[in-house]
Amino acid sequence: MPLSPERVREDIPLTKRYVYLDNCATTPVPRPVVEAMLEYFYDYCANVERGAYSIASLANEKWDRARAKAARLLLNCEPDEFIFTRNFTEGACILAYGLERPLLNRSGGTFTETEPVIKWERGDNIVFSSLEHHSNMIPWIRLARHVGAEIRVVEFDVKSGMILPSEVEKAVDERTKLLAIQHVSNVTGVVHPVEEFVRIAKEKNPDCFVFVDSSQGPGHMPVDVKRIGCDALAFSGHKGPLGPQGSGGLYVKREHLERMDPLEIGGGTIADVTVRDYELRGDMLSKRWEAGTPSIACLIGLGRAAEYVAEEIGLSAVRSREHMLTERLVEGLLEIPGVEVYGETEDLRVKAGVVSFNVEGWSSRDVSLALDQNFSPPILTRAGHHCAIPACRRLGVYEKYGGTVRASFHYYNTPEEVDALIEAVKTLAR
Prior knowledge:
Strand order of the largest sheet: 2-10-9-8-7-5-6
Structural class: alpha/beta
Strand content: 15-25%
Number of strands: 17
Mean pLDDT: 97
Number of helices: 14
């Protein structure tokens, strides 16, 4: 039997003091995950891949096991295709660097550049949507400038808050070398048909590299990179997986990893070094991208979190409960005069556990502050542009409200907490 929401709440002490509805930005870390990190610090606090003594070997074993768990349980990929990162942003920047520069490595006794993953030419284009998080936009703007590519933007549908496949089809063509697209919107909460996006891009250009921002996916719902068919996908550990800040993952197909240049190189990334050249390690491709001492405790925590959310709760159970809570909140908010709800409000099957709204006459920030300061227990929501200014401008809420108020759920949230938020918004809207 999966852990019940009530049992998970026991593992998250702040649920006793707050109605916490900012899971889209950062989730609380359950006790078993914290305990796994403390066990590292207390019992085998040694560096990984640096020592032969007993607790160093134990640290290696736990670190490798954490990678295998996170890769299998959260993304259904192989460990050597799973790069440990600090967060989604680092994953996107690692990828952008690797797609701009060919691999420099010693091979067959010669130090050379290999064939790049993408052969950039004038007239190529990079496509992303106006609904993207800044971290899935800025690296590609910079990359386009460096390689001389054109930027094409897919405008999302304002009413539904969705990136429509038909609009993606209009934007991509045989010169599209990179499509960077989100899985779930952190503004409108829509779960997008990423498999369809991949199919469209590959039909237009079989060599088009497709990167998916799945920051709001793993831990909130089952994610299978093989089924999606993307070339790369990244996420943050401190959102859906219930992991600690400073943890995340970047999946890249092995065939691409073999030809990508790492963003950072140094200790832990090499097989051999001379004063003239170096040979990158080939035993575990993903570790080429993890130079220096990693955030060992956080990454062990991510592995434990993957186990907790995927095996002890169950990702389908998380998805089902978030859907129920989302339906309850959307239906309640729509009944309040003066409240605007953004994104799809009719077919809620396409929604994740993310609801954005505003109250007429209030800035989003003031609503969020009032929910925190004027109600007991305090109701904690997000306010502002959610690192998605272009999306908020297209929705018409950036200048008017400063963005939106956003409530976002996880498995441990309750219907009673949703009702408390609805009643509080009713009070503010009077």
